[in-house]
Amino acid sequence: MTTSHTASDGPAISQPKMFKHGVILCLFCLGFGLVLAITNEITLDDISARAIEDKQNSLSQVLPDELHDNNPVTDTLTMTNAEGKELTVFRARKNGQVTGVAYEIFGSGYAGEMKLMMGIAADGKLLGVRVLAHKETPGLGDKIEVKKGPWIERFTGLSVGNPPIERWKVKKDGGDFDQFAGATITPRAVLKAIRSGLEFFAENKTALTKGD
Amino acid sequence: MANSDYKTIVKDGLWDNNGVFSMLLGMCPAMAMTTSATNGFGMGLATAVVMAASSWLVAIFRNQITTEVRIPVYILIVAAMVTVVDLGMNAWMHELYKVLGLFIPLIVSNCLPLARLEAFAAKQPPFPAFLDGLFMGLGFTIALTAVGAVREIIGSGTLFADASLLLGPTFKVIEMRLLPSDMGVLMMILPPGGFIVTGMLVVVKRLLDLRAGKEIQMTGAHAV
After folding, report:
1. Cα–Cα distance measured from residue A131 to residue A141, given in angstroms and rounded to the nearest whole number
2. Closest approach of chain B CAs to the CA of A121, in angstroms?
3. Which of residues 42-71 of B touch A (CB under 8 A)?
4. B217 touches chain A (CB under 8 A)
5. What is the pLDDT along chain B (224 residues), one digit of tens a residue?
């Protein structure tokens, strides 16, 4: 408000007029704020329902239905992983016994972070790995998506020891797993993420499977 | 307003003064979202809805919005409409939202809606303004779908892949594979492809206009 007194150059805006502009802008903000509040209120329930469905969809791919009679989306446990990141663990139970757990693992790919969901049975066997989000090159690195190719299904049924942990690498690095033609960094990152996920399970096995 | 004026609005929006091919506005979504025809089409439609709604609103309030505060008010209106579309799509068109969700907020920074508000809606009654927003948006949709189709055919060998996610299972029939999957030219899906294809299509449009004996409109964006 004080600038209009001191400004000697340029056309000065008179105070009442400036006040009017402020009021107009304020009224528009109030009006559209109200519109947004109402829209938010109307869509709130549907949006949270969709978010739960999404979680369920990604979990059902790594925690097979026959393994549980509970709802893993709501049966969660919060843990801290080796990097100090908070991790939500989803638990599958049958008759109260934990039969498997699923949690997110993270890898650093060719073009940024990738997020995966990993399911692992109580005996340490991998139930499945799925990519939730990534920024890899379309046509090269995106073969890690189950939609684009069967590569990611290769891990189902494997565990630490089968193959031994030092062979959880792409073939180029002396491991057991195929890389893609033209893209080594992406599968390498996925393998590193899975390895860290397996190690996390090994270190926290009792906490993860005791089920309270 | 006479009927011929409405006709001009429609023709301007769809072809003569097309947002992408004539005014070269809205390049950010035109590049980012056109890796496939389906994505371009969805992004275009979302933009059309936002443009029609915000043009209509600005025209209604055109006498209350003073020149000094018009820009913040326009941005406020566009941002509010984008948020409404964003929330609505998340709740009720969730499959489409998963594909486009990241890009819907980008509509706020698209200069095409803002240009039409300033150039047209601010001076016109609500109905013509609504039409202008709608048809400029549909012209944008046509342009994005065209760029997306060319990039998709050359880049992945498909056309309208995943259209059934966007439009419902009945549209499964328009999902086509035109070339074997290993024949795609990856560059067309990456950012350079967007620039190359958009440039080519601008040339094609001008050639068509020349052949039809039309004067080429290049000044649309500045004819404020």
Report:
1. 12
2. 29
3. 61, 64-66, 68-69
4. no
5. 567 789 899 998 898 889 899 888 988 888 888 888 988 898 898 899 999 999 999 999 999 999 889 999 999 999 999 999 999 989 988 877 877 777 788 888 888 999 999 999 999 999 999 999 999 999 999 999 999 999 999 988 889 887 777 777 778 888 888 887 777 788 888 889 999 999 999 999 999 988 887 765 555 444 43
Q: Please report, for chain A, the start and end positions of each structural domain, with discontinuous segments joined by +.
A: 62-209
Q: Residues with Cβ < 8 Å from B115, sequence gap 6 or more? A: B23, B25, B221, B224
In chain A, which residues have their Cβ closer than 8 Å to the Cβ of B83? 36, 39
- Inter-chain touch B73–A36, beta carbons under 8 Å: no
B11 inside 8 A of chain A by CB: no
Contact (CB, 8 A) for B145 and B40 = yes
Residue A55 has phi, psi (to 5 degrees) of -60, -45
Residue A14 gets which letter from DSSP? P
CB contact under 8 Å between B186 and A140, yes or no, is yes
Query: Which three-class secondary structure state does DSSP give residue A197?
Result: helix
Instruction: Enter the pTM of the model.
Output: 0.76
How many helices (H) and strands (E) would you count in chain B?
9, 2
Q: Kindly state whether B189 is in contact with chain A, defined as any CB-CB distance less than 8 angstroms.
A: yes
**Residue A142 CB contacts under 8 Å (≥ 6 apart), including other chains:** A134, A136, A148
For chains A and B, count residue pairs whose Cβ atoms are closer than 8 Å: 62
